[in-house]
Specification:
- This protein has 409 residues and is α+β, with helices and mostly antiparallel strands.
- The protein has 2 domains: 200 residues, no CATH class; 189 residues, no CATH class.
- The chain is built from 16 helices and 15 strands.
- Helix 1 packs across helix 14.
- The chain is elongated.
- The protein starts with a helix and ends with a helix.
- The model has no long low-confidence stretch (mean pLDDT 82).
């Protein structure tokens, strides 16, 4: 019975199970490394994007011209209620909230310390991905929240009365007494380090900013529409004369990190190439030398050299596919096993490391890996190309065999 070329190629892979197994292992480990690293990287990039478009920055920001550069108290959005109504009317907006930022002195007792008052709409900012994400209750009027690092520095406690002194938007002295409602740790490092959080209405009264705010932070239903949303805001009459920026313009350095993260996968892809070439070339070359007599017999019986070449190429492809299947199974198994509980990358840096602070943002280190279809296709394509490249030398050698020399070799 004459076997087809494909069946013969498949049978030949089983002749030396140990050698074939080692080649499969090399390719499988390479594919697993590619999927595992890409899965972790996708999860970490999701964390960065959530941190950027969540607590501190939002998807789009609206502010008075020049405020972002000068941070002056009098550079405020007037008619805040009307502007917020216009912003929230867009169907792509999940929520929008005004904010006031003001440098102040905080005095829990005799000594005064520098801090930043952040006036927020706490009912909105307490929602997922808000500045106060996870806060169970809104801030009461006449009360404030202190960032935990600031509270430690000034030795303030819950229920304590503190004095806040700053400058009003009209140039007057702004000062009042507030009670510390709670000491918090939130996703925004600015709050943790120096933040005094109060209800937006309290901040408006304190700094003489009726129906005004320095900034409106807008969060969209879908993160990918930030730039289109900003363009639509620019067309609204209620927002005329205000500066409007999507998050990509506000933190371009983090956008660069997101764009360059894909290159990590290509570095691992090089390792997949090396593993595939080493495993497949070694397996096929050893197999070709061992089957010189068999190839000579086939050539003597009338087989064309092209069939011998095709058999070796098919062996390489089958070996590559089998290795990719093994590695893909391991990779998806790893991602599936870790996607629910996640991977605590903070534990790699010691017990004291929980997150990374960057430009006022906390980038969480608890990663939930995920994969995209492209990741699997990338590895499969790379191994197929490598398999073809690795088969060239053995195929060239086998295709040049002379029947007489092969039978007596």
């Amino acid at each position: 019975m004459q076997f087809s070329t494909v069946r013969m190629a498949w049978r030949n892979l089983g002749r030396n199970k140990r050698r074939t197994g080692l080649a499969l292992l090399a390719i499988g480990v390479g594919q697993f490394a590619l999927l595992a690293s890409n899965g972790i990287m996708h999860g970490y990039m999701d964390n960065i994007k959530s941190a950027v478009t969540g607590p501190m920055v939002g998807h789009v920001q609206v502010y008075a011209p020049g405020w972002w550069e000068e941070r002056a108290m009098d550079l405020a959005i007037e008619g805040l209620g009307e502007v917020l109504e216009a912003v929230r009317s867009d169907g792509a907006v999940r929520n929008a909230a005004g904010r006031i930022f003001a440098p102040v002195l905080v005095a829990p007792k005799a000594d005064a310390f520098t801090a930043v008052v952040v006036g927020l709409e706490t009912a909105i900012e307490g929602q997922p991905y808000g500045m106060l994400s996870g806060l169970a209750e809104r801030v009461e009027r006449g009360r404030v929240l202190l960032g935990y690092r600031l509270a430690k520095k000034i030795k303030a406690e819950r229920g304590q009365e503190i004095a806040i002194v700053g400058q009003g938007a009209d140039g007057s002295l702004a000062n009042d007494l507030f009670v510390v409602q709670d000491i918090i740790k939130c996703p925004a490092d600015l709050i943790n380090q120096s933040g005094v959080v109060m209800e937006l209405a309290d901040a408006q009264d304190l700094f003489v900013m009726p129906d005004a705010a320095h900034m409106i932070v807008v969060r969209a239903e879908i993160s990918g529409v930030a730039e289109e949303l900003a363009e639509r805001f620019e067309q609204q009459e209620a927002l005329a004369g205000l500066d409007i920026s999507p998050w990509q313009e506000i933190v371009p350095e983090l956008l660069t990190i997101l764009d360059t993260a894909d290159y990590v996968g290509y570095i691992v892809l090089v390792l997949v190439f090396i593993a595939a070439i080493a495993g497949i070339t070694n397996t096929l070359m050893m197999s070709t030398f061992e089957r010189r007599h068999e190839f000579g017999m086939l050539l003597a019986l009338g087989s064309r050299p092209s069939r011998i070449v095709g058999m070796i190429v098919i062996e390489a492809i089958l070996l590559g596919i089998a290795g990719v299947v093994v590695g893909t199974g391991l990779g998806y198994g790893f991602v599936a096993a870790s996607s629910f509980s996640g991977i605590d990358m903070a534990s790699w840096g010691g017990e004291s490391v929980k997150d990374i602070a960057y430009s006022g943002l906390n980038l969480p280190l608890h990663v939930y890996p995920r994969l995209e279809v492209f990741d699997t296709v990338l590895g499969l394509t790379a191994v197929m190309l490598t398999s073809l490249a690795a088969s060239l030398w053995p195929a060239w050698y086998a295709g040049r065999l002379e029947p007489r020399e092969a039978l007596h070799g």
